[in-house]
Write a structure and sequence with these properties.
The chain is an alpha+beta fold and 397 residues long. The chain has 16 helices and 18 strands. The strands form 7 sheets. A 4-stranded antiparallel β-sheet has the order 7-8-11-12, with helices on one face. Strands 10-14-13 form a 3-stranded antiparallel β-sheet. Helix 9 packs across helix 10.
Length: 397
């Protein structure tokens, strides 16, 4: 059962406004005001009298039962002052499939190998399109080059140097600006581990409590975390929360833009338990919940080399089986550092291409010609991934 309710205080900005709790049983349950609703939620809800709000709160509706909806809508439509509530309920019913898919994540957690998911891409999904394949945010970078991205302050503390990276996304109509420390593959694994911990603990809302040892284990380690690894994790978490992202539409008729960070806030308490409180970005909440640590094909992915993983994730994150793209344009889209020479980059792509052919992901006709990468995905590769049209995935776990 689900209920329309009012909340006297927004969990994000603490304003006193009313919201709709979408599901009592789903992790999509986030109490926020209309100004703070994340992407994909209805903003049709407006403030209305407390009397009317309480009147609606007493109504419980079964999303699976059209009769319940219709009776409630008929009653509400008799009062013109409740027009916005009617809109809200109709939108709730329309989007109920999105609520049900969140509940399915429990199944994914219990057996992720059998729930390999591929995202689909729609024109309006430009904020999620690239961010949640993680290709632009996290880069392939060598240890020597990582060392160049830091400095030592006057107290002997290692400080990460911030950089700005700007480039066009897939199709050329999306403009990305990423600011902050350079994030590498290790940072990506730490980020995904944090998301996985959040899912595993089945927390409602956007805050999860964890610790360094728990993150260490979710990275796949069985040994006890030592002093060096603790420091590496602390530094990685510090880098993650410093990164800000802006995604801007380049369409002349659409001036939309989106800005935010991978995490909203991180609070680390340096005690024996090393408690860490992570607040996920509210406007990314729906994407975190979309199985964001689930892999495309768990067994295959883990057996690919670094570049092959990036190429595999990129090509399988779009609808078309056949595509071509310039090698130069591909570089930022799969998160490869500019410090990797063009020759080495092309050699690595060629090697990854051969690997994906051998793994029967790409058709043998896939090739690099005149600095253009042509790829054709085999039907058996699509069959290996359970394609769910309304669900998205992205992870390196």
């Amino acid at each position: 059962m689900s209920k329309l309710k009012n909340t006297l205080s927004c969990g994000n900005c603490f304003n006193t406004k009313y919201v709709t709790t979408l599901s009592e049983n789903s992790r999509l349950k986030i109490d926020v005001c209309t100004d703070c609703l994340p992407k994909g939620y209805s903003k049709e809800i407006v403030e209305y009298s407390k009397t009317k709000c309480l009147e609606i709160n007493s109504k419980e509706i079964d999303p699976e039962n059209d009769k319940d909806f219709n009776i409630l809508l008929k009653e509400l439509k008799s009062d013109s002052s409740l027009f916005n509530i009617v809109n809200s309920i109709e939108l709730f019913k329309k989007n109920y499939n999105d609520i049900k898919k969140a509940i399915k994540h429990k199944e994914i957690l219990e057996n992720p190998d059998k729930h390999s998911i591929v995202r689909t891409v729609d024109a309006h999904q430009f904020t999620a399109l690239h961010l949640f394949t993680r290709n632009q945010v996290f880069q392939i970078i060598s240890k020597p080059n990582r060392a160049k991205k830091t400095r030592v302050d006057e107290y002997g503390k290692v400080i990460d140097i911030s950089e700005d990276r700007t480039f066009l996304g897939w199709g050329g109509n999306i403009h990305f600006t990423i600011s902050g420390p350079v994030l590498c593959d290790y940072d990506q694994q730490v980020f995904d581990a944090c998301v996985k911990i959040w899912h595993t603990k089945s927390k409602t809302g956007i805050i999860v409590e964890t610790n360094l040892s728990e993150i260490w284990k979710n990275l796949g380690n069985t040994s006890t975390i030592g002093k060096v690894n603790r420091e590496s994790l602390r530094r990685s978490l510090s880098r993650l929360h410093k990164v800000s992202i802006e995604v801007r539409s380049m369409d002349k008729k659409n001036k939309s833009f989106w800005g935010g960070g991978l995490f909203d806030t991180i609070r680390y308490i340096d005690t024996n338990e090393n408690k860490i409180f992570i607040k996920f970005n509210l406007y990314m909440a729906s994407n975190y919940l979309d199985g964001s640590y689930a892999t495309l094909n768990h067994n295959l992915y883990n057996n690919l080399t670094s570049y092959a993983k990036k190429i595999y994730m990129f090509i399988m994150s779009h609808r078309d089986s056949d595509r071509f793209i310039s090698i130069d344009k591909l570089r930022p889209l799969i998160g490869v550092s500019d410090e990797v020479s063009s020759k080495r980059f092309k050699d690595q792509i060629s090697s990854a291409l051969s690997e994906l052919k051998e793994k029967e992901v790409l058709d043998p006709i896939s090739k690099i010609e005149n600095n253009i990468l042509y790829t054709t995905v085999l039907s058996k590769a699509w069959d290996a991934c359970a394609i769910h049209n309304q669900m998205s995935s992205s992870s390196c776990l």
